User: Fold this.
Amino acid sequence: MAEKVLLSGNEAIARGAYEAGFHFAASYPGTPASEILETIGEQYSDVIKSQWSTNEKVAVEVAIGACYAGARAMAAMKLVGVNVAADPLFSLSETGVNGAFVLVSADDPGMHSSQNEQDNRRYAKFAKMVLLEPSDSQEAKDFVGLAAEISEKFDIPVMIRITTRISHSKAVVELGERKEVPIKGYTPDIKKRVVIPAHARKLHVELEKRLLKIKEYANSVHVNRIEDGDLVIDGKKIGIVTSGISYQYAKEVFPNATYLKLGLSWPFPDKLAKKFVDMVDEVWVIE
Assistant:
């Protein structure tokens, strides 16, 4: 029987990096993200090289270097840190990866420890990254492995967006074993890695093609699902679209509603959403 332990979302993400065979992680400290790298450094330093970087941009750049060299790499930061790191992130979507690249953005609705409450899901669409949104600690762990698979399969960076109540709440998590993933090694490719305009124009076209493939993938991936229910209000069958921690809040109040539960929310699974809409009379979006 698999071991089960109580983990915060941040601890679960660190465990997910361990189980998914990550080789490198970098971060700049800032609540609600700090414990991710702390846990990696304290518990998994024998297999994952980690560093506190000068700032979030540097954390992303060294993680990009690791992924270009063929390692599975993670950069973790709080919401406003993504502002600092935006420049290299936007180019990475065009150049693609070698080993997996996963960005963890710990957002802070309610500004418990931040100067604003920006929604970094916008960055995923803006920078053309895949967006995953775990709704509890178990998904936080499991989604790291899924993010690595998507990143390498589709040659694209993946953002895992968590929020304060995911980062710091604890839940039971079923552990797995580490999957050893070989480092692919570095192969120079100037036309793919150096984003001067002549290269970037072609890379942008290829990126858009990859996004179309990911959109189809999003319609069938297991983390996007419809949960059929029987909640009827004023004669109308109610359907709820939600993701992340909001899913848990909604399920607590409306356990028998019909749900479109989004784990991969960008690119948006339009075909699955249409199927969901056709099943209900009224749609609520809960944030």
Notes: The CA atoms of residues 190 and 199 lie 9 Å apart. The mean pLDDT is 97. The longest helix spans residues 197-218. The chain has two domains: 4-218, 225-285.
